[in-house]
Design a protein that fits this description.
8 strands; 19% helix; 134 residues; alpha+beta; 3-stranded antiparallel beta sheet; 5-stranded mixed beta sheet; single chain; Immunoglobulin-like
Length: 134
């Protein structure tokens, strides 16, 4: 490999040392990118569920995500059958990964919940939950 050094040991091949550093750097970059991907908010559970039917006219709404979300910078909107959009008032967060609100006075028909949340990684995530009120 390398030549003999003054202290009796062997020199480390500079190319091997450089390749080891580059490999370690690549590993850290890949781990960092993977962590960022997992931090985006993904809806894990909801009430009402996607394409479900609920009994109206009043019911509670709960949205649970895979990561912590910033409730103060998140919102939930209700789209009624006639297209009217209203922003629902969010309750104080009981859990850092959930949002709660309440819908009242809904007439029978097909509705959509539109949610937008700020995840712990700083990215906004959006989604929609269609449901029917009886």
């Amino acid at each position: 490999m390398g030549g003999k050094s003054l202290d009796g040991g062997y020199e480390v091949n500079r190319a091997v040392h450089r390749d080891w550093k580059l490999s370690l750097l690549a590993l850290f970059l890949i781990m960092g990118a993977t962590t960022s991907l997992w931090a985006h908010a993904i809806l894990k559970d909801s009430t009402p569920k996607l394409n479900s039917t609920v009994q109206g006219p009043d019911f509670d709404i709960t949205l649970r995500y895979n990561v912590r979300i910033d409730g103060g910078r998140s919102r939930v909107r209700l789209v009624s059958p006639d297209g009217t959009v209203s922003t629902l008032k969010l309750a104080d967060q009981a859990s850092p990964d959930s949002l709660q609100t309440h819908a009242a006075g809904l007439k029978p028909g097909t509705y959509k919940l539109q949610w937008q949340v700020l995840a712990s990684d700083g990215h906004m995530s959006r989604g929609e939950i269609p449901f029917t009120v009886n």
